Amino acid sequence: MFDISNEIAYANLMVQAKTASPENAILGPSKWIDVQGKPGPDKWCADEAAILIDGLNRLKYGGAKPDLYVVTPFVIVQDHLRQEILKSRVLHGWVDNPGAWVWEHVGTVHTVQGREAEIVFFVLGAQMSSQNGARAWAGGRPNLVNVAVTRAKTSLYVIGNRQLWKSAGVFAVLDRYLPDGAA
What is the pLDDT along the chain (183 residues), one digit of tens a residue? Predict the structure, then answer.
């Protein structure tokens, strides 16, 4: 995450003060999980949510603490993710108050500024090829990707259509640094 942030926001001028954190023992190293899903209304993609919920289930049943954030560039994706996570019941028996947890831990990039968690899931949305403008907006703002990346202490999992996003501004840096990964 340091190298990505350093290139995106600081022209490679930062000096790393600490060593890189180890990868997540359950989900493996940071990666881009390529989802070429069926677009839903606006920028929403239920297939991306299914991958996220699978990851949450794996963490839960693997004994991990729910020390994570789910972030997205878009409010509509945030709203649908909150609903789908609650509907899946993955948080039951893992967190004390699932309703409060989704409001605290699932949001747009702007809502998690200044916070950190072991894991960040960055759910992209905008699966339609015609949504170049939305992707260009998100990728044209280095601070948006930088904030998403630097919230993760250990692992970052980007969930979205790599082919569509990799040429959207600073997402090209994520494309270079993050290997392809299965869910």
Answer: 445 554 544 444 444 544 445 668 899 999 999 999 988 889 999 999 999 999 999 999 999 999 999 999 999 999 999 999 999 999 999 999 999 999 999 999 888 878 899 999 999 999 999 999 999 999 997 778 888 888 888 999 999 999 999 999 999 999 998 989 876
Q: In the CATH scheme, what architecture does the domain 2-18+30-177 have?
A: 3-Layer(aba) Sandwich (3.40)
Q: For the chain, how many residues are written?
A: 183
Task: Give the C-alpha separation, 61 to 56, whole Å.
Answer: 9
User: Hey, which residues does 123 pair with through a beta bridge?
Assistant: 159
What residue spans define the domains of the chain?
Answer: 2-18+30-177
The DSSP output letter for 81 is H
> Cα(23)–Cα(112) distance, rounded to whole angstroms?
22
Tell me if 44 sits within 8 A of 125, measured CB to CB. Answer: yes
Residues 6+ apart with CB under 8 A from 76: 41, 42, 43, 44, 125
The residue among 46, 43, 44, 36 whose CA lies nearest residue 87 is 46
3-state secondary structure string across 83-122:
HHHHHHCCCECCECCHHHHHHHHEEEHHHHCCCCEEEEEE
